[in-house]
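Hi Q.,

Before the meeting this afternoon, I wanted you to have the S-adenosylmethionine prediction in hand. No need to reply - just skim if you have a minute. The sequence and ligand are here:
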Amino acid sequence: MRMLSEYSRFFREFRRDFHHTGAILPSGVFLARALASGLRGPRTSARILEVGPGSGAVTRVIVKRMQPGDCLDAVEINPRFAQLLEHRLQIDPSLRGNRDQIRVINAAIQEVPGESQYDFIISGLPLNNFTPDEIQSIFETLTRLIRPDGLLSYFEYAFIRTLKSGFVGRQERQRLQIIGKILDGYLHKYQVRRNHILLNVPPAIVRHLRLKPTTGESSSNLVS
Ligand SMILES: C[S@@+](CC[C@H](N)C(=O)[O-])C[C@H]1O[C@@H](n2cnc3c(N)ncnc32)[C@H](O)[C@@H]1O
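Predicted structure with the ligand bound:
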């Protein structure tokens, strides 16, 4: 029942604000697990930033992997999603036990102040919907906010730019090409790992990047 109401809520926001929502449905559990995979295993306590939590599908998996001493800031541009998440923190059994460790911030990520604060950034932003300028400013913001050696994990739907390019006009094709180039530039320099998630609608690729590497870890594009 919760799933149904979450899906219909998400679909409503998709229709109301396609640019920012970017998907018909919330992420599936396999995608959410891959996005939060950096939090697994023994580690010291961490500051975690989730960008674009939406209805909380990925938040729930992040929370499962949180340790005592961790804290999570969830930054959401859509006030209705931010309100929904605040509400879920009070009533959802998988979230409410950790609600003292979680802050929901209703803002665009580009407005979040500060520098080198987060060990992990997990992003659900629909990058393919954005203009090249938006992508640049988002990546500049994430680079500013992440700590040296911090891990950024984000996803994109597999082949979506190539598939879309066949059906759209020249201007849109150009936009997709430019954002593809910007993203490839970041991946080439900073990607340390990627996961192919076939069990998602649509299939997705999760990218893990160290935007401020301090060690010799290479961008080997390892598939795991
Ligand atoms: C594709 S949905 C992902 C939702 C959720 N993480 C999931 O995977 O199911 C993208 C989310 O990013 C939010 N968003 C879009 N642009 C944003 C921005 N500049 N700052 C913060 N949130 C943003 C949208 O409102 C939406 O909730």
